[in-house]
Write a structure and sequence with these properties.
alpha+beta
Amino acid sequence: MRSPNRRRPRQRTRIVPPGTDLDALADRVRYVGSPEHKNMPTFAGHPRPRSDASICPREHNDAEVVTDWLRSAMRAGSTGGPWEDGYPRYAWHRLGDTVFEARLVNRGDGAYKGYPLRPDEWPLHMERSR
């Protein structure tokens, strides 16, 4: 969810710089999660949900599975900028009727956290495929 102090909604636009090797990028990223989007203990640690943060579904608690989703999004070029040290700040993966947004949390090692989006927050390239 967006910060309550945000004046305008974040534009979620697909961006892939020319010449980007998406397969190599996918091999370098990993999902580390965040206790800010959890309401139970997970591999990301003890829950510390923020009042403005969406909560990840409990059934998505396998870091390896979620890392595979992240890598799939990278290979598909479902990424958004800005790009930082060779990593996109955002990536998106659709699972059924839910789109998850991954956000870069450590550009030194390609670590991401993720959270579900409301349908009105979906990136434009995913809205067309609903």
